[in-house]
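Quick note —
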Amino acid sequence: MHIRIQLVSEANLIRSALICLLKGEEDFIVLNPVECAPPCHRLCCASESDVIIIDTISGRNNGLHCLKQITTRHPEKSILLLIAREHFSLTNELLKNGAKGVISIEITPETFIQSIRDVATGKTTIGPHLLDFLENSSYQHATNPFDTLTSRERDVLELILSGIHTEECATRLHISKKTVANHYTHIRKKLGIDNLIQLTRLAIRHNIIKP
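Predicted structure written out below.
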């Protein structure tokens, strides 16, 4: 049995490398790839495909938008998302919106190929690196990690993402600087991030702020 694969990718080099890998499998038929570039005004998948692989690892676009575009028109499609490991928090949301599998760039070629075969047979698969991160995070069952924050933590988060320093945050929220710092520590722990740069990237990925 042959598996017809449609690749949707953001980057030429990555797209070419993936095509070379896929064409090395006798049971894979690689259809003409599609370059993912916003704004997306067309359905970027071939009707005869069995598996659609959406590559978002260059980070320019959000695979969630592409996923919704396809599943809205063709809910029967088997879709595999390839994401950067640092964006593991998107895994649950992608699966909820119709993806059959989510894997990271750190995956081995052998596991990548097996993930495609699993998805083609209707199995749901999550890459081992993503599973490790999810199992060690406080929001492995949450669609959006920011949903795990308390209302006060969200208040602090909003001010921090606005560039407000600790002392000003304390003044605006009528709490001490130490309390602000404690909230920020809890936020970082819940979201599985270490610094403001990672926090900002995560917030952009989950549409908390706009880039």
